[in-house]
Write a structure and sequence with these properties.
- The chain has 153 residues and is mostly beta strands.
- It has one domain: Beta Barrel (Lipocalin).
- An eight-stranded antiparallel beta barrel has the order 1-2-3-4-5-6-7-8.
- The radius of gyration is 20 Å and the shape is globular.
């Protein structure tokens, strides 16, 4: 009687994150801390008001599904999230910042950013995105001719 054993070798120690594309990993690595908009604020034009800010607070090692309870269907899929952030916005200079807690999702090729409000998991904004460097990115919003230019603070 012959007994054969087949042993499979795998490198569990590899530091490869297969949950995200290489582009998503690069973007996620830079999404840490606060970024402020220079295009539509006093940081780029002294005549304008305080900047919108995005504070990236948490990156997920794997995407999570965003779902809400739906009476008819049980659970409604809203999208995937790759991390969490706070979008800080001022309507007027005299107003305090309003903080919109969000989940964020990076497109597979790293060219878009979607924000979902944590309160109801509805889409807050979707932007086309260009990464300029490890400390700067541009967000293009439908209806605006110029991009938001966010720089690391």
């Amino acid at each position: 009687m012959a007994i054969f054993a087949f042993i499979s070798c795998s490198k569990d120690s590899d530091d490869v994150n297969i949950a995200y594309s290489q582009q998503q990993q690069k973007v996620q690595a830079m999404f840490n801390g606060a970024f402020a908009d220079y295009q539509y604020s006093k940081l780029g034009n002294p005549l304008l008001g305080d900047p919108d800010m995005i504070v990236f607070t948490k990156n997920y090692p794997e995407p999570i599904e965003l779902r809400v309870d739906d009476y008819l269907n049980g659970s409604k899929y809203m999208g995937d999230a790759h991390g969490e952030c706070i979008y800080k916005k001022k309507l007027l200079n005299t107003d305090p910042y309003s903080d919109i807690e969000c989940y964020y999702k990076i497109a597979y090729d790293g060219t878009a950013l979607t924000l979902y409000k944590k309160s109801d998991k509805e889409m807050y904004h979707h932007y086309n995105m260009i990464i300029k460097s490890s400390i700067e990115f541009e967000l293009y919003q439908s209806g605006l001719s110029l991009p938001y230019i966010f720089k690391k603070q």
